[in-house]
Every structure is written in structure tokens, then in C-alpha cells.
Specification:
- Helix content is about 15%, strand content about 35%.
- It has about 375 residues and is of the alpha+beta class.
- The chain folds into two domains: about 120 residues, Rieske [2Fe-2S] iron-sulphur domain (Rieske Iron-sulfur Protein, 3-layer Sandwich); about 220 residues, Naphthalene 1,2-dioxygenase Alpha Subunit, Chain A, domain 1 (Alpha-Beta Complex).
- The termini are far apart.
């Protein structure tokens, strides 16, 4: 037997996760059809006359035309090639030159949801209806006027989406990658929910105070982080969106969003500037992961140490979304808690090489 560690990685199964996937801000979708290349197929999204978001299979089964080139009529979508019209339920409801609509003239209508100012689509290889108890929860702060709206960026990532989800248990990467020293770290797994709770030092996002975060995956692809930090000595509360939709087995669209609690007592202009600055800082920190996802190799048998988080357990939890609903292990019906005690310092190389933003320069000058 070789004394060297050998990386193993099984071929990725041709299957996409069951659950809700976020498509970005709900306001991004209107009466103009939008083509989406997700789950290894093509979809088309649009709003009908009742303003409800509709998502259908993206190709017309008549002769294969791209339905994103079509146009909306009522709550239906007319194909621009032969004028077959498809209702919000996916059933063809009009063929101008036919006496009878074929019985097989039906395409898939995908379940959709609009919540928290975001749009969602539900994917299930078995075509089961979404479960009521697994809907993305309401964010009560959104739309109150006390918080900013979402600032969302889309980043195409060229790797399997498990690499992103691994971050939930990867305690050791925070220091070397984000210059954030994790002091307390805990994971909780229960049913379709995975939680990461962390306290640590992050000069970029919390100054001299303690950065506290609670990140929660609701299903396989939609995560909200509640974060309390500091900027220029002023306490900051924010919520982060991390959501992905697979475009293929080896790529996904990552949406990273930020909403920030507005600063009481500040003028509208100053508050907007502070929000914009904090959004830039959180984006900067998150983007540091991207270079690794594009270049690292998939590892099914990672060599772990006692200071690493429960990566194997996280992957077992995540796998429930890739099996049939009837085969989901009952083990997740009971809450599982894992605490990682090791301290992960910020390497001096990371501190010395940390980029300084214009906002940080301004903060130093004002200090």
C-alpha cells in the first residue's frame, strides 16, 4: 500500500438536486420571455397578464423552436415559429391552422415562487409537488423600508456545485482565504436545513469587534446569512444571499446578494454610501472563494484533521437531495449538532497581502 494520499473522485451522477432554486430578484422578470439554461435543459420564464411568474420547458415540441423568442398573450406564450400557443399549465391552448390540438401537445410547467423580493423555481427529478414545510422562509425585514433592497451579482462557476456547499463545514478556510479568524464554529443539520454559526475576527467586516454570522441552507441551493459586524466604528446588520442553479453537472450560476439595515440618523445620501461600501466589502470577501472553485480538484476522500469541520457529515446531509424522496434517510429527522473547537488564525501573508479598498483608505484617513 502506498504511503502517499491518493485523491479519489467518482464520476458525478447525471442528476440535479431536488428543491427550490433562486433565480435572482423577482423584478428581473417581466412580460418579455427570458431563456434559462438550467438543470441540463432549457426553460423560458415570463409574466402573464395576471403578473404571476410562469416557467415552462424552453423548446416547442412541435418543431423545436426556442420559446424564449416567442411573445406573451394573456397568461400564455405564443411560439414565434409556427404560432402554437402554450398556457401557463404547459398545455397547448391554440394552433391557428389546426382543427384539433394533439393530445400530446403539453410541456412541463415548473413550480415557481416569489418571496423576499426573489424568484424561485422548483426542481424535482420525480416531478413531485413542492412540500409546504420546505418553502423558503419569509424574511420579515425585506420591504419594510428599514433595510436596503437586495444588491445581487451573478457569477458563472465552472465546477460541480458540491464545492460551494462544502463551505458550510469548512472552518479552516476562513483565515487563509478571507483573513477572518474563526473563534467559535458550529454546524446543525436537521431535515432539509443546514446551519453554520460562527464568531470570529474580521478586520474587513467587523473592525475591532467580533463578527457574528448565522448561515442557513434551506434545501440544497438557497442560503441566507444573518451577519452583524462593524464599519468605520458603526454597527452594521446585513443579510447575505448565496444561491446557485446548476447549468450542467460541472457548472452553475452563483447569485450572491446583500441587503443592509439602513443607518438611523444618517442622511439618505450618507446611509446609501455606507450601504454601498459595506456591500462592496462583503462582495470582495465572497469573491475570494471563486478563484479556488475554478481551479481546485474534486475530492471524495479528503484527508481531514481534528481541527476541520464535519465535512463528511455535511456531504451526507447534502446527498438527501440527490435520492428519491422516499429514500431520504430518517436520520435527518433528528437534529445533529457538531462543534469544532480548534482556533484558525489569520496567516500573516494574508494580512500583509489583503487588498485595501478606497473605503478602507477613507476610514484610515478619518481615524
Amino acid at each position: 500500500m502506498s504511503k502517499y494520499a491518493k485523491i479519489e473522485a467518482a464520476p458525478v451522477e447525471e442528476r440535479y438536486a431536488r428543491g427550490w432554486h433562486c433565480l435572482g430578484k423577482a423584478s428581473d422578470f417581466g412580460r418579455t420571455p427570458v431563456g434559462l439554461k438550467y438543470f441540463g435543459t432549457s426553460l423560458v420564464a415570463f409574466r402573464g397578464e395576471d403578473d404571476q411568474l410562469i416557467i415552462l420547458d424552453g423548446y416547442c415540441p412541435h418543431m423545436g423552436a426556442d420559446l424564449a423568442q416567442g411573445y406573451v398573450e394573456g397568461n400564455s406564450l405564443r411560439c414565434s415559429m409556427h404560432a402554437w400557443r402554450w398556457g401557463s399549465d404547459g398545455v397547448c391552448d391554440d394552433i391557428p391552422y389546426a382543427k384539433k390540438i394533439p393530445a400530446k401537445a403539453c410541456i412541463k410547467s415548473w413550480p415557481t415562487l416569489e418571496r423576499n423580493g426573489l424568484a424561485f423555481v422548483y426542481h424535482d427529478p420525480e416531478d413531485n409537488a413542492p412540500r409546504e414545510d420546505q418553502l423558503p422562509p419569509v424574511i420579515k425585514e425585506h420591504g419594510t423600508g428599514e433595510w436596503s433592497d437586495w444588491e445581487v451579482v451573478l457569477i458563472p462557476i465552472h465546477t460541480n456545485c458540491r464545492e460551494l456547499v462544502d463551505n458550510m463545514a469548512d472552518k479552516a478556510h476562513f483565515g487563509p482565504v478571507h483573513a477572518s479568524a474563526a473563534l467559535k464554529f458550529r454546524n446543525v443539520f436537521h431535515k432539509h436545513v443546514c446551519v453554520q454559526e460562527m464568531e470570529g475576527k474580521s478586520p474587513r467586516l467587523a473592525g475591532d469587534s467580533i463578527l457574528k454570522t448565522r448561515a442557513t441552507y434551506y434545501g440544497p441551493a438557497y442560503m441566507i446569512t444573518e451577519m452583524s459586524g462593524e464599519m468605520n466604528g458603526i454597527p452594521v446588520e446585513s443579510k447575505l444571499l448565496v444561491s446557485h442553479v446548476p447549468t450542467s453537472l460541472e457548472s452553475f450560476d452563483l447569485r450572491f446578494g446583500v441587503m443592509v439595515k439602513l443607518f438611523p440618523g444618517m442622511s439618505k445620501a450618507d446611509s446609501a454610501a455606507m450601504v454601498k461600501g459595506y456591500v462592496e466589502l462583503t462582495q470582495q470577501a465572497f469573491f475570494e472563494d471563486v478563484q479556488f472553485w475554478h481551479t481546485k480538484v474534486r475530492v471524495d476522500n479528503p484527508v481531514l484533521c481534528d481541527g476541520d469541520g464535519p465535512i463528511h457529515r455535511l456531504r451526507q446531509w447534502y446527498n438527501q437531495f440527490y435520492v428519491n424522496a422516499a429514500d431520504v434517510p430518517k436520520v435527518w429527522d433528528e437534529e445533529k449538532i457538531y462543534e469544532t473547537e480548534a482556533f484558525n488564525p489569520i496567516p500573516p501573508q494574508k494580512l500583509s497581502a489583503a487588498p485595501v479598498t478606497k473605503l478602507q483608505e477613507k476610514a484610515v484617513a478619518e481615524a
